[in-house]
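Q: I'm writing up a methods section and want to include an example of the input and output format. Could you take the sequence below and give the corresponding predicted structure tokens, formatted cleanly so I can copy it straight into the document?
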Amino acid sequence: MTEAVSHPALEHGAQLCGLAENEALPRQLLARFIARADEDLLGELATRTDLGPELRHALVERGGGWVRQRLIWAGCLPLEEVPRDDPKVALAALVSDLAPLSWAAELAVCPDRDVRWEVADLERDLGETFYVLADDPDHGVLEALALNAALPSDLMETFARHPSTAVRSALARNDQVPARILAGLLADGGSPPPTMCGSCRTVADPDARRAQCGDHGPGIFEVRLSALQNPATPPDGMAALVSLPEPWQRAFIAERSGLGEEVYTALADDADPLVRRALALNPAVPGPLLRRLAGDPAPEVRRGLSDNPAVTLDLLVSLAARQRFVREIPPRIAAASENELRLLAASPVAQVRALAAVREDLPADLLTGFAADPDAGVAKRIAPHPSLTADHLLAIVERHGLSVYSAVATNPHCPADLLHRMALDSHAVRKALGPIARHPSATAETLLLCLEHRDGCWFAARHPALPAEVLVELLGHPDWDVASGAAENSALPTAVMERLIDGWLPGAPAAGWRPRSRRPTGTA
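A: Here is the clean output for your methods example:
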């Protein structure tokens, strides 16, 4: 009789973490993997959706409550397999909507403070459980409850009078709290005055608290700041806060609607660009003040204007003529009519044309016109458009060269031969290797070129077109993401998967490792 071979437990590492996510891992090897995995690997395996009852039971048998939680989060554990006597597992089932809300009542009195905190954080109608939690002795639980948007209105009233400034501050950040309560918290921290703040709530004796903290001024200020940051707080009274010491505090005021023109004007004069940028993003700011901000010396302020949905098209055009924006579609451009798009497309200013080129619903003639645009900036913005043909993309590359490679490679219809041509120039435009290596049409030959630089290696290691022998070599790569990506690749040979599960770990190559040169003979 052959003696059974004993295998040591498999330890968490790049290759086995990647293998745990490999969708092509055969079931018999998956069962063997579960039987040998350490606790961390069991958690990785629990995220798989192809386990089935038998493998799921084997996983739970080895991993216990932690694995059950991971299975619940992955949507792979039925309710009948959730133990009610394990609070953390039951909590995971409740939070993930697997368990009924009736479970909240038991968990609200759990000895574990963290469990009660999670229940208090559930933004659902917990009924009487809200009132049980409102009597919790732990202030952290009360703060989580005060932040809960589903909190009953009578408890909001109660928490607005709570002795602790920390509880009132949490309530002041809840955007479902009535405006009347928020206005009071903004004005002076609420009434009656609090008797406890964060720095003194551990002191039981009231006289000692008063001696230590006085009037709890810093805590009250935190309550007012929390109310200031709440978009549901009425703007009345905010004008008095425009001289707050920190720029981020004044920026919250600059974001608000309903302030007087004199307040917005004062904020436009603020010395800090963070405040002026917040103002530039605010659609409630009067038009003349937005035009004034268009001449702001700080580029981040002018870029903020481009994201303001209230900015006029002519103002946006004047901004675009002086600086380039990011590729995201400005709200005003997203709302532009076809006639407005045509006006933009006819502009002699390239960046103005680029504004329209990011729209995905362009008429066919504008799409063709942008694809033939002489400016590389316009070309980069139109290149990812899914309606462009392979001929369009080739023409863009011919016209603009290296500068458009990254944008062209993100187009879902970029042909394999064009991807390969761009990869051959990787020495000049390495940042394009990432999108090239991610492209579904990339061939094995192209992926081998992408491996020559870190920019493409991470993504090429996960591409199913990569040759098996190269994947095996990459398992020993010193970079975690590359090694785990190779192990996750569905093209990894089954025999290699089996060796990994049997304990084989490829040695990491020496420092300065590079793949064997696979660049075709005669290429640059």
